[in-house]
């Protein structure tokens, strides 16, 4: 096998390893259960955490944020429930 071929395969394996590692989303470190009145509810991490709506877990395009907002409404609805997943950060 030539040196050029070895270098090419090395780059292919490194890129493949990076892609597989990057695609894995770590499990949340905590999960918040929210029960709130109808309307908009805002949850904010003031320091040291990031949030994601629990319904977005497993979605590789969903990002983490320091503020999670959800809303609900409807005829006869009095309370809303939701879940937010969270991760601790070094901040």
Structural account:
The chain is α+β, with helices and mostly antiparallel strands and 91 residues long. It has a domain at 26-88. Helix content is 23%, strand content 38%. It contains one helix and five strands, in the order αβββββ. The protein has one helix at 3-23, and strands spanning 30-37, 39-44, 49-53, 67-72, 79-88. It has a three-stranded antiparallel β-sheet with strand order 1-5-3, with no helix packed on it. The chain has a two-stranded antiparallel sheet with strand order 2-4. The longest helix has 21 residues, at 3-23. The termini are far apart.
Oligomer: single chain
Overall morphology: elongated
Please give the radius of gyration in angstroms: 20 Å
Give the number of DSSP strands.
5
Q: Roughly what percent helix?
A: 10-25%
Largest sheet: 3 strands, antiparallel
Spell the H/E element sequence: HEEEEE
What is the structural class? alpha+beta
Topology:
Elements: H1 3-23, E1 30-37, E2 39-44, E3 49-53, E4 67-72, E5 79-88
Antiparallel strand pairs: 1-5, 2-4, 3-5
